[in-house]
Specification:
This protein has 8 helices and 2 strands, in the order αββααααααα. It has a two-stranded antiparallel sheet with strand order 1-2. β1 and β2 form a beta hairpin. The longest helix is centred in the middle third of the chain and has 27 residues. It starts with a helix and ends in a 5-residue tail after the last helix.
């Protein structure tokens, strides 16, 4: 049982760390070829991989709890960010405007991030555990096809609708979806390997 708890703590901590880092770096847009992407795309898909590992090993209820903790930590980050940017800087601190840009995300983007997080993470959890397929690799791929679509549409739609024309929005949604899906699928072997290894080491309570 000690090993079980240690593994869960490690996975949960890694999951929450990815969520927090993704929220901090999401404000920067990058180009990968013709695609317009938020910088968080480089690590955020890994959160679904970790969530599916937790779900496979510890069950749906514990995974939902970890997802809620991730949301609470993200909300706490927002509160602290708003407090810090509202405090007057020291006279020798010359980078306050840059600090505000990095940590002063607009309420609309924050709302988009929260809603996409909750909708996509819970969709992934539901689909991954509803599929009657023993092969974890296949289950993850099927889940990601739907999950990454919801994630991309909800976040881009809420964050940028009205700011850019439809063609740019479509490009952003398609870019986010295809790249996230590719990264998530490439992470699928990690789920299979991790679950097999951990199941050999741990005594799981069903």
């Amino acid at each position: 049982m000690k090993n079980l708890n240690e593994e869960l703590i490690a996975l949960s901590s890694f999951f929450t760390t990815i969520i927090i880092i993704s929220n901090i770096i999401a404000g920067k847009l990058i180009n990968i070829g013709p695609f317009i992407l938020t910088l968080s795309i480089l690590i955020y898909p890994l959160s679904y991989t970790i969530a599916n590992i937790i779900s496979e090993l510890y069950g749906v209820n514990i995974t939902k709890y970890v997802i809620r903790i991730g949301f609470i930590c993200s909300f706490f980050l927002v509160i602290i960010s708003f407090i810090t940017i509202s405090l007057p800087p020291a006279s020798i601190f010359k980078f306050n405007n840059a600090y505000k840009i990095v940590f002063g995300a607009t309420p609309r983007i924050i709302l988009a991030s929260f809603l996409s997080y909750l909708s996509a993470q819970n969709t992934n959890l539901w689909i991954f555990n509803s599929l009657k397929i023993k092969n974890i690799y296949i289950r993850n791929i099927i889940s990601m096809i739907f999950t990454q679509f919801i994630d991309s549409v909800v976040f881009i739609g809420i964050a940028f609708l009205g700011k850019y024309d439809f063609q740019i929005l479509f490009n952003m949604i398609l870019s986010q979806y295809l790249i996230k899906l590719l990264i998530s699928i490439s992470n699928s072997p990690l789920i299979s390997i991790s679950v097999k290894r951990m199941k050999k080491q741990l005594i799981l309570e069903q």
